[in-house]
Design a protein that fits this description.
The complex is a heterodimer of chains A (about 450) and B (about 100).
Chain A lengths: L2 H22 L6 H20 L8 H20 L5 H23 L7 H28 L13 H21 L6 H18 L7 H22 L3 H24 L4 H6 L20 H10 L2 E6 L1 H6 L2 H13 L3 E6 L9 H8 L7 E3 H4 L8 E5 L8 H4 L18 E6 L19 E5 L2 H12 L1
Parallel strand pairs in A: 1-2, 1-4, 2-3, 4-5, 5-6
Chain B lengths: L2 H18 L8 H11 L3 H9 L6 H30 L3 H4 L5
The chains are: A alpha/beta (about 450), B mainly alpha (about 100).
Chain lengths: ~450, ~100
């Protein structure tokens, strides 16, 4: 048997491990083992990859791997759970960068066929978009750049021209794939620019969609690189990731009742004809909140991005335990797009050691929301905005929400009366049964907890 | 390997991916995403040939950079996913196996 055959057989084994790993990631009981299995698959694939006949010296490979492993391990260890969306975005971006570079370096192999040139082109294009798109997403998530949707006049025309230029350069490069071709640099530059242009018009509240879509792209980029270098495992693993990313993206879009095109091409808040909300807000003190909670038998927490910002997950869990000790039924209702990435709130509550049985999904809590004595909204806004149900003029009309306004009492923890991310007024704050607990979410909850003491 | 064969693999893997991930509880969306993200670092297995040249030419530099980025993706992705999953606990486990 020659070494090439053995390597390819090893790739079959890693493909099987990836499939089982992903399958097991779908259930809480087996998820951790699934991830381990998939990492073993990766190890096998990497070892098999190292047997490649084209390798003459291992010096640079070793340098690259050691550097990468140190950076990756440190980043994974040190990142705070609240910054997880940014971290995932950066990892995504580096996957995209790798595919771009592999595609690019393939051109140095000498004369290549047109088909290979097209796949190289795709690897550079998708990899480049993933790289800069992820960097912009990272910037928006970490508030390094303004996280609001950036829309300027002529944006569509500009993007159309950009796309046309990209296609033109791509065709020219495919016809004459040379490393010193000016078209190569044009394709690289334009792809990177496209990634930037694709993500800047998308607002922070739509980030769950963007992150899962970029995740899908990073898989597709690996897939294209696989075609460029004739490598089976890149194609298999890349398309598995691509498909799973598309499914997540779809789930996120459904949760907002918007099509993918709508999320990608219309900046949130671009249309604002919603009925202005008038009314009086009724503030409540921590002490009064305590009296209400003390008498409650069914309390439901509804967390949002504000909980992540205030790092309030631990005090929330503490309050939940106190209420449970008081004979109260406690649940945490999580909207699919609460936070900045799919499952963001689940991760934070898990960090605070909330058992996952207490986490309920939107469709489970809504039918029994009338039985909830107190719904506590922590830093969530759009996902509990009744305007999505009632006001046809509202930009978020039609988005499924958690109907906290139907609970007996609603506490809204909020820093101030500013409107939510989409810039939409929230009639919930003026509701008959709504009480506003103003201030930092963490401090407010700590104040309520101290009343229990 | 011919184009048709590779395309076969592509199409079948995409269908397999769709089937695999169809019903995942919301709790696991983040770990699933970051776990899948780690797999997309598979580009690493294909980056070696370019980085393994004897002399340090442009292709080797590109290859080495690709190896570095892909390793960040792989190592970071798996570790961070594991770190997240370690936090997910059911009530039984949280109470030390009782209740």
């Amino acid at each position: 048997m020659n070494i090439d055959l053995i390597a390819n057989l090893a790739y079959v084994i890693s493909a099987i491990l990836f499939v089982f790993g992903l399958k097991m990631l779908g259930s809480p009981a087996t998820a951790r083992r699934g991830n381990l299995l998939s990492s073993v698959g990766m190890l096998i694939a990497v070892v098999a990859g190292l047997t490649d006949g084209g390798i003459i010296s291992f010096q640079w490979i070793a340098i690259g791997m050691v550097t990468g492993a140190i950076i990756g391990a440190l980043a994974a260890r040190l990142v705070a759970m609240t910054s997880m969306p940014e971290m995932v975005a950066l990892f995504n971006g580096s996957g995209g960068a790798a595919s771009l570079l592999v595609g690019w370096s393939t051109l140095y192999d000498g004369q290549i066929a047109t088909f290979t040139a097209v796949t190289v082109l795709l690897a550079i294009l998708i990899g480049g978009v993933t790289l800069t798109g992820s960097l912009i997403a990272w910037g928006k998530l970490s508030e390094t750049i303004n996280s609001a949707a950036l829309v300027f006049s002529g944006q569509r025309i500009f993007n159309s021209l950009l796309l046309a230029a990209l296609i033109g350069s791509g065709v020219m490069l495919s016809l004459d794939p040379a490393v010193d071709s000016v078209w190569l640099y044009a394709v690289i530059g334009l792809s990177l620019l496209l990634g930037v242009m694709a993500v800047i018009p998308i607002g922070g509240a739509d980030m769950p969609v963007v992150i899962s879509l970029l995740n899908s792209y990073s898989g597709l980029a690996a897939c294209a690189a696989g075609f460029a270098i004739n490598n089976n495992i890149l194609i298999v693993a890349g398309s598995l990731v691509g498909a799973s990313g598309i499914i997540l993206t779809n789930i996120m879009c459904k949760a907002m009742n918007r099509s993918l095109t709508n999320v990608l091409f219309s900046g949130f808040g671009a249309v604002k004809q919603a009925a202005a909300v008038e009314g009086e807000v009724k503030p409540i003190t921590a002490e009064d909140a305590y009296y209400v909670l003390e008498a409650a038998t069914n309390v439901c927490f509804v967390p949002g991005y504000g909980m992540a910002v205030a790092q309030a997950q631990h005090v929330v869990k503490e309050l939940g335990e106190l209420l449970e000790g008081n004979g109260c039924e406690v649940s945490f209702a999580i909207h699919p797009v609460a936070g900045r990435m799919p499952g963001h709130m689940n991760v934070l509550l898990a960090e605070a050691d909330v058992p996952y049985e207490q986490l309920v999904e939107m469709d489970d809590i809504n039918p029994r929301i009338e039985n909830v004595d107190v719904a506590i909204v922590i830093g969530a806004n759009d996902v509990v905005n009744p305007a999505a149900r009632e006001d046809e003029g509202s930009p978020i009309y039609g988005m499924p929400i958690i109907n906290v306004d139907k609970a007996r009492t609603v506490f809204v923890l909020k820093r101030s009366m500013a409107s939510g991310f989409s810039g939409v007024d929230n009639p919930l704050f003026f509701g008959e049964n709504t009480r506003m607990l103003f201030g930092d979410a963490k401090e407010s909850i700590s104040a309520v907890i101290s009343e229990f003491g | 390997m011919d184009i048709v064969f590779l395309t076969f693999i592509l199409v079948l893997s995409i269908f397999l991916g769709f089937e695999l991930i169809s019903k995942v509880p919301a709790t696991l969306h983040t770990p699933l995403m970051s776990g899948a993200n780690a797999i997309s670092g598979i580009t690493l297995a294909g980056a070696f040939a370019a980085a393994g040249a004897e002399s340090l030419g442009t292709a080797t530099i590109l290859g080495t950079a690709a190896v570095t980025f892909a390793t960040i993706n792989v190592v970071g992705g798996y570790l961070v996913t594991d770190r997240m999953l370690a936090m997910f606990r059911s009530k039984r486990e949280a109470n030390g196996g009782q209740s």
